[in-house]
Amino acid sequence: MKKPSLAIAGLTACSGCQLTLFNCEDELREILERFEVAYFPMGQSDPDPKRHYDVALVEGAVSTPGDLSALFHFRNASRLLIAFGTCALHGGIAAQKNRSTPRPALLREVYGDRAPQLESFPPAPFKNFVSVDAAITGCPPEKGDLLRLLGAVLAGTLPAFPSYPVCLEC
Ligand code: SF4
Fold first, then answer.
1. Partner of 67 for a Cys bridge, out of 11, 50, 57, 114, CB 3.0 to 4.6 A?
2. pLDDT tens digit string along 75-97?
3. Has keyword Oxidoreductase (predicted)?
4. Residue 74 has pLDDT above 50, yes or no
5. Does any ligand 1 atom lie closer than 6 A to the CB of residue 11?
C-alpha cells in the first residue's frame, strides 16, 4: 500500500512545533515506515517544494507575503492541511504585538537607525486566509497529540483536539 506523503513546514515561527516530530523518539521509526516524509526542510537536505502531499503540518503565523504565498501553496498542494500549534491556530507569540506598539516603532526600538525595511503585516492565524482540515494546539503541541493525529490520518479520520492557547495547565 502506498504510504501517505507528509509535509512539515513553518511560517513565522520558532520551529518548536516541528521539533515535536523529533521528540517522538520511540515512535519515529514507525512513523517513517508508515509515512513518506516528502517535505521537511528541518530534517532534509534537499526537500522538493513542488509536490502534492496527503498531509501538511504547518506551524507559524502568517506575517509576510512569503508566508501567505507558502500557506496558499500548502493549502493547494495538500489533501489535508493541519494548523500545527498555537501560532498557526491563534497567531501565537508573533501576533501578541498586534495589540501594542506598531511594528515600525518596535523595529526602531530594537534596531535603532539600522531598522530593516521589512515587508510585513500584522501576524495572523491561518483561518484568516484559508480553510484548515484540523488543528493541533499547544506551544509546542504535545507529542501524544501529534501521534494521535498521525494515527487518525492512517485510519482515515481526524481527531478533534481541545483548543487552548499555550498549554493545558494555562
Ligand atoms: Fe514556537 Fe510555540 Fe509557535 Fe510552535 S506554537 S512555532 S513552539 S512559538
1. 11
2. 999 999 999 999 999 998 888 87
3. yes
4. yes
5. no
Establish whether residue 140 lines the binding site of ligand 1, counting it when its CB lies within 6 angstroms of any ligand atom: yes
Other residues' Cβ atoms within 10 Å of the Cβ of residue 147:
17
ipTM for the predicted complex comes to 0.99
Ligand 1 centre from 139 Cα, in Å?
5
The reported pLDDT for the residue numbered 25 is 94
Q: How far is the CA of 119 from the centre of ligand 1 (A)?
A: 22
Residue bearing the CA closest to ligand 1, atom 4: 17
Say what the pLDDT of residue 169 is: 46
Tell me the per-residue pLDDT of 39-54, one tens digit each, with 9 for 90 and over.
999 988 888 777 899 9
